[in-house]
Amino acid sequence: MQQLLGQFWKRWRKEFLPSLNVRKKWFHPRHNLKEGDVVLIVEPNASRREWPLGHVVEAYPGDDGLVRVVKVKVKNKDYLQAVHRLSPLEYVEDSGEE
């Protein structure tokens, strides 16, 4: 059972999770993370079920308008995270985007 769980986790992390946050080097505009978005914090060295789930508290856009760093609230703590270390699970609806 542990071996099957390990195989599932490995495939989920390598095959499914990257498809959630596909970014093409910032050449093509994508959904910018913003306040209220639900994200999974990617920690490659963490064991299964240990990736924290949080929500974006504040986004910090660069000079070009693209968000590369956000403040994420996990439980009762806030963390600054680069967006390439996050996998968005749920976006806040915004009629002006995409």
What does this structure look like?
The protein has a five-stranded antiparallel β-sheet. The chain has 98 residues and is an alpha+beta fold. It is 19% helix and 33% strand. The mean pLDDT is 81. The protein has one helix at 2-20, and strands spanning 38-41, 53-61, 67-74, 77-82, 86-90.
Low-confidence stretches: none
Oligomeric state:
single chain
Number of helices: 1
Spatial strand arrangement across the major sheet: 4-3-2-1-5
Name the overall outline: globular
Order of helices and strands: HEEEEE
Please give the share of residues in helix.
10-25%
Briefly note the structural class of the backbone. Answer: alpha+beta
Report mean pLDDT, rounded to a whole number.
81
Question: Main attributes?
Answer:
98 residues, five-stranded antiparallel β-sheet, 5 strands, alpha+beta
Task: Describe how the helices and strands are arranged.
Layout: H1 2-20, E1 38-41, E2 53-61, E3 67-74, E4 77-82, E5 86-90
Antiparallel strand pairs: 1-2, 1-5, 2-3, 3-4
Task: Provide a concise account of the structure shown.
The chain has 1 helix and 5 strands. The chain has one helix spanning 2-20, and strands at 38-41, 53-61, 67-74, 77-82, 86-90. It is globular and about 50 Å long.
